[in-house]
Amino acid sequence: MSNFGETGKPRGWWFTFVCLAFGGVVLAALAAATVWQGNVHDSDSSAAQSHSRTAALLTEAGTEAGIAAPLLRQYVGTGDAKLIPQIQAHATAAIENLTGAITEGGVADLTTIVSEGTSVSDGLGQVIALRQSGDVPAAAAALEQLSPAFEKVSKEVTAAVTQERQEASKLQSSADKANDAASWLLIASIAWGAVLTVGVTAVVARSMFGRRVSKTPSPI
């Protein structure tokens, strides 16, 4: 009878130890998963913001180009020299925004757009030079030749903006899901940690109580 008690007690403690160890492993796994999902959220959120900035820069480039084009047409028709600084300012702003977009990076082929946009800007300068020389027909003809290239770049910019916004939306959705998962994993970690703490406390209390009982002298 006494031998059974002596062998049963170590087995009980061993089972308790295994349960606590397993609980610790689960807690560590929950904590690691929480950190991982948090990192996914930060990474995807940062990437989404980058694509949003690229879309904003491309949109601004399109807006600036859209302002420069009618001003150029007006200049060819009227020869008003006061329009030249405005045209050049908006064209420069468009190129700067395109360059900023390619620096930021994106899913669209921005290098091609910048290259084509630069060509359009050069053509714009040629139109102005012809009009300044007084050759109105040549300036008008150069403007008409430039129009298809301008429309092509405008369409490519619009398509790139759509791509960047879609990518930003997809990444933000992924970031939101990762954030939700991290929140639930954190709650689960806290709850499991509380259960594990109660279990450890119970084991310690049981151990201390057992020692006190064993040290108490028997009245018999």
Task: Summarize the structure in short.
With 220 residues, this protein is an all-alpha fold. It has helices at 2-78, 83-104, 110-132, 136-215. It is built from 4 helices and no strands.
Tell me what the structure shows.
There is one protein chain. The chain has 220 residues and is mainly alpha-helical. It has a domain at 54-170: Four Helix Bundle (Hemerythrin (Met), subunit A). The chain is built from four helices and no strands. The protein has helices at residues 2-78, 83-104, 110-132, 136-215. α3 (110-132) runs antiparallel to α4. The longest helix is centred in the last third of the chain and has 80 residues, at 136-215. It is rod-shaped.
Backbone CA Rg: 36 Å
> Which stretches of 5+ consecutive residues score pLDDT under 50?
1-8
CATH topology of the domain at 54-170: Four Helix Bundle (Hemerythrin (Met), subunit A)
State the helicity in percent bands.
over 70%
The portion of residues forming beta strands comes to under 5%
Mean pLDDT: 80
Please give the largest β-sheet. Answer: none
How many helices? The count is 4
Keywords:
220 residues; mainly alpha; Four Helix Bundle (Hemerythrin (Met), subunit A); 0% strand
Write the layout of secondary structure elements.
Blueprint: H1 2-78, H2 83-104, H3 110-132, H4 136-215
Helix pairs in contact: 1-2, 1-4, 2-3, 3-4
